[in-house]
Amino acid sequence: MNYQQAWDYLDSLQFHKIKLGLEAMRSFMDRVDNPQQRLNYIHVAGTNGKGSVSVTLLTLLSRAGYRVGLYTSPHLSSVRERFRINDSFISEEKFAALATRISEVLGGGKITYFEFTTALAFLWFAEEDLDLVVLETGLGGRLDATNIVTPLVSVITNVSMDHEAYLGNTLSAVAMEKAGIIKPGVAVVSAVKEGEGLAEVREVCREREAPLFLYGNDFCSTLLGNGSWSWHGETAFFKRSFQGLHCAMKGEYQIGNASLALAVIELLQERGLVLSAEDVCQGLAAVQWPGRLEYFCLDRQSRARARSTGAVGTISYLLDGAHNPAGVDSLVQTLQKEYSFRRLLVIWGAMMDKDLKKTLPPVAELADLIFLTKPVGERSAEPELLLEHVPPLLQGRCHLYATVEEAIAGAEAEAGEDDLILIAGSLYLVGASRKILLGELVP
Questions:
Q1: Cis, peptide link before residue 392, omega less than 30° from 0
Q2: How many CB atoms lie within 10 A of CB 377?
C-alpha cells in the first residue's frame, strides 16, 4: 500500500468504534514477536493533561540528548501526528510500509483503529535506537491497548468524569480504570486528589507494592512574584529543586502538568538518566502542544500568520481541545485570568456522547457571540442539538452553521479589533479548524 491507501485502510477499521480489552492486542503482538518488549516506557494515563505531560517529557528528554519516541492520540488532522521520535513525525513511506505489514499479518482479521495505530507505534519504535518511549493511553487504562507494557514509571495525571459509557458513571469507577496501568513494583507519579480518585489509586498501589509519589505531597511547585515558578521535592527521595521556571504553554494548570514531568525525570535518575537544570529550564520554555490553548494572529486579508499579536488588520484566535467538564473549567479560568479581549467570539462543536449540559454553558456565558457547528464525523452533535444546551437567555447570541468552514467565515466576518475567536469543544473541531487556518501540522 502507498500512504493514502494505508490511511484509507486504517479508516475502514471503523474509526469511531471503541472496543476495550487486551486480548486482540496481545494476540496480534504475539504474531509479530512482541517488539514492544524491547523498549523502555513511561506510561501516561489520566482524564486531562496526559498529552501535555507526555509532550513535556519528550521535549525535556530530547533537549538533554536522548532519543525518545512519543505516541499520543487523537490527532488533529493527520494520523502521522500520533507517532514521533524527538522532533520528527513518522514518514509517509514508513507509515505505509508498517501498515502494509500489519494488514498482511491480520489477513482477513480485524482489529480496531486504536489497536492498529498502537501496533504500528510499537513496530516503528522497535526498529529505532530509542532510549525511551512516552506512551499515552487512549481511553481509561486497565483495558487500553497500550496496557500490555511494563514501564519504568507510570503517570496518572488526574481523574474526572469523561467517557462514562466505557469507564463507569462514578469517579471511583473511572479511577479504578485509570489505576489499571499500575504495575507491580513500578513507581507511580500522580496529581489525583482526595475525593477524586486518590483512595482508589492508593489502594491499587498498595496491592501491587508500587511506590506512589503525589503532587502537593511528595513534590510541589511554588509561584514566584516575577511570573516564574519553582519545583522542589518534599521528601528525601527528590534531592533537587529547580528555580526560575517558565512554561511555554498557557494556563496555570500547566505548572501542575510540568511538575509531574519533572517528578518522572527525577525518578529516572536512578536508572542513569541525566538532565541538567539548564535542560529543564530551556526545555519547559520550548514545549509546544498544538490545539491546546494555542494562540495566534492571522492577517485579515491573506490569513497569513501575523508578525505581532493584536496588530491592526489581524484576527486573534485561541484553539483549545477542552471537551469535558474539568477541561472546560480550566479553559474558563484561563480565559478570565490570562487573556484580555474586547469581545469573545466562540466557535463550538462537540461529540454527542459528551456532557453538553456541563461544558457548553460555562463558555457560552463568557461569549458575546456563539457560532455552533459540526465537525465531520458520525459522533458529532448537530448544531440544533448544541443550541438546546445553551442557556435560554443566551440563545439569541447563537448562529448555526452546517460546516466548520462556514462557522469560521461567520466568526471572522464579525470579529473586530481586539476581539478573540475561541475555537473549542472537541479536538476534532480544533483539528479541522487548525487545518483551515494554518495548514497541516505534519510536513
A1: no
A2: 15
> Which sequence spans correspond to the domains of the chain?
3-284, 294-438
pLDDT tens for residues 187-218? 999 999 998 899 999 999 999 999 999 999 99
Query: Which pTM value belongs to this model?
Result: 0.93
Q: Closest Cα partner for 50 from 174, 158, 167?
A: 158
Inform me whether the pLDDT recorded for 398 exceeds 60.
yes
Q: How confident is the model at residue 107 (pLDDT cuts 50, 70, 90)?
A: very high
Residue 140: CB atoms within 10 A of its CB come to 24
Arch. (CATH architecture) of 294-438: Alpha-Beta Complex (3.90)
At residue 191, what are phi and psi to the nearest 5 degrees? -120, 20
Q: What's the pLDDT score for residue 403?
A: 97
Which overall architecture, per CATH, does domain 3-284 show?
A: 3-Layer(aba) Sandwich (3.40)
CA atoms of 50 and 111, how far apart (whole Å): 25
β 420-424/314-319 pair status: parallel
Cell numbers for 157: 495525571
Q: What's the Cα-to-Cα distance from 216 to each of 98, 178, 211, 269, 411, rounded to whole Å?
A: 43, 20, 16, 21, 41
Phi, psi dihedrals of residue 426, rounded to the nearest 5°: -165, 140
First-to-last CA distance in the chain? 20
**219-223, strands of its sheet edge to edge:** 219-223, 229-233, 241-245
CA angle at 170 for the pair 164 and 175, rounded to the nearest 5°: 90
